[in-house]
Automatic annotation (TrEMBL):
Residues 1-28 form the signal peptide. This is Putative polygalacturonase. Pfam families: Glyco_hydro_28. Gene3D superfamilies: Single-stranded right-handed beta-helix, Pectin lyase-like. Its main location: secreted. It is found in: Secreted, Cell wall. It comes from Rosa chinensis. Its EC number is 3.2.1.15. The keyword Secreted applies. Belongs to the glycosyl hydrolase 28 family.
Amino acid sequence: MAINAGMSWRSHAFLIVCLVPLAHLATARERQIIPPVLPDVFRGNNLARHGRADPTEKIFNVLDFGAVADGKKDSAIYFIRTWIAACRGTHTGKSRVVIPEGTFKAGPVIFQGPCTCAKPIIVEIKGTVLGANDLSLYEEPYWILFEKVDGVIVTGKGTLNGQGSSVWKNVESCSGSDCSPLPSVGIVENSKHC
């Protein structure tokens, strides 16, 4: 930056006072950026405890309700049947829906309440859940929806794979009002304590 020689000393002083606080920006790339300190909202909570079944919980495994871990057959209806049994079935104690290891394909799924089981109801994902890549299956813009559920915990080391790369081609070639939005995952509506 050039400073005009015809400027008064007050103008120079003003520029220096204004520009010195900005000097640190020039070397920001050379320094390590430290993220701001945020409050620990989980302080005191043992988040790992949800990954282990409580001996008082009843386990509802999606395989027992007909889901197939082949990555091809749509298991959405079997996920829903498992949820209904865990959430609103005859069991009133603690419930855990388990999606075990393996690859499950599932189109749109609504996990709907209210639940009659004890809170919280836990959904544990151990395997991989593949979203359906046929966008015509999605009447609404969601893939997985928790609706009217009071107290749900989603946990596990599994994967939710919406197969975005396989459906992006549909969006890229789409134009006008006939385009559907890509479905979202993990939407929670009219629910509490999630």
